[in-house]
Specification:
By secondary structure, the chain is of the alpha+beta class. The chain is built from three helices and seven strands, in the order H-E-E-E-E-E-E-E-H-H. The chain folds into two domains: 79 residues, no CATH class; 33 residues.
């Protein structure tokens, strides 16, 4: 009986099925990249959105993501839970034919938005701080 169990334990088990899907993405060997978010870049003025982040090039086709370690390498399908969250939050199609002028305008708008948020937060804290101190009125002085 022990010999049978040992033989069973040592026998190879069937491997789980794997699906391998590859695509072609014909971008230049050294594409010009533009920053779209901290840590995420896109290939400038390209027919489809090709991003670079985490040491990989990424492309979304329909609802599927593919990646490659370099522009001319084999592009392979990536399970959704392995796609960086920053990529999945990008609006599909927004960065197609993305140009340097757009990147500069968006970065300027983003900085202005952050500046306005910071000022609003500061004003809010100042108002709250002023309320907690009181305004010095109503203490028996006429």
């Amino acid at each position: 009986m022990l010999a049978a169990l040992a033989a069973l334990a040592l026998s190879p088990s069937p491997a789980p099925a794997q699906v391998s899907v590859q695509i072609q993405v014909n971008i230049p060997a050294n594409p010009q990249l533009l920053v779209v978010q901290p840590g995420i870049q896109v290939v400038e003025n390209w027919d489809e959105e090709v991003f670079f982040t985490g040491g990989y090039y990424w492309v979304r086709r329909d609802a599927y993501w593919y990646r490659a370690p370099s522009p001319r390498a084999t592009w392979v399908y990536v399970e959704p839970h392995h796609v960086p969250p920053g990529l999945t939050r990008l609006p599909p199609g927004h960065y197609k034919h993305y140009r340097k002028e757009q990147a500069k305008a968006e970065q300027k708008a983003w900085k202005e938005h952050q500046k306005a948020d910071k000022k609003a937060h500061k004003d809010s804290q100042k108002a709250q701080h002023g309320e907690s101190k009181g305004d010095g009125k109503g203490h028996g002085h006429d």
